[in-house]
Amino acid sequence: MTYFTIGVEDHYGWANLVSVAASGPDITVIDKRRVDLIEPNLATSPYHHETLHMRDSEAEKLVRAVKASANRRARIALATLITELAPATCRAIAIRTPPLAELPAKVAEVHANYFVMCRADGMIYHQALTRAAAQLDLRVFHFDKSEVLELAAQVRGLKSSTLERRLSALGASLKPPWRKGHVLACAGALVAHDAV
Question: Choosing a second label site near 48 at 20 to 30 A (CA), which of 75, 87, 99, 195?
Fold first, then answer.
């Protein structure tokens, strides 16, 4: 194994990182871990909850603190993983398509649009992970969760149902949990692996 890619299943305040190496038809999950992306004393969903009843200045301060924490924790999580898996080299991460094209600059702008408000907190963690990857010179691949299995199957020359069974079975050899999100992250990592 000379290099690997990381598939990311991101959530509010945490993420699953699934590191994958592949050689020919062989697929190996070399690491699977859950990482926290925010300090425990901070709000995980500030746009959707805490900032709703705050003055603008307090809301902006809270969101800045959450973003700073997410950025710091995402960088530490990816850098630690890469260091621990050396001498293998990480070339890329694969993460779902961002929930928004961009995150508005002000909290009030987020609150003004319910569609945006429901996705803004997810953007904090998504941006933190993709920013950390860029800082670590990793390519970032985005995938649509509804299509990633099919795409990974195509690049591996398999039917999507066959690949899904193989990826699901990989979880049997790993410490639980191994859920659908892990399988999709693994599929994303395979797409990135075959593209770099």
Answer: 75
Long-range pairs of 23-27 with CB within 8 A, sequence gap ≥ 24: 25/156, 27/156, 27/166, 27/167, 27/170, 27/186, 27/190
The pTM is what? 0.94
Cβ neighbourhood burial of 33 (10 Å; 0-12, 13-18, 19+): middle
Spell out a b/e string for 169-192, using b for 16 or more CB atoms within 10 Å of the CB, else e: ebbeeeeeebeebbbbbbbbbbbb
pLDDT tens for the chain, residues 1 to 196: 589 999 999 999 999 999 999 888 889 999 999 999 999 999 999 999 999 999 999 999 999 999 999 999 999 999 999 999 999 999 999 999 999 999 999 999 999 999 999 999 999 999 999 999 999 999 999 999 999 999 999 999 999 999 999 999 988 788 889 999 999 999 999 999 988 7
- Going along the chain from its start, the domains and CATH numbers come out as 3-195 (3.30.420.10)
Q: What is the C-alpha to C-alpha distance for residues 90 and 74, in angstroms, rounded to an integer?
A: 15
Q: Tell me if 106 sits within 8 A of 47, measured CB to CB.
A: no
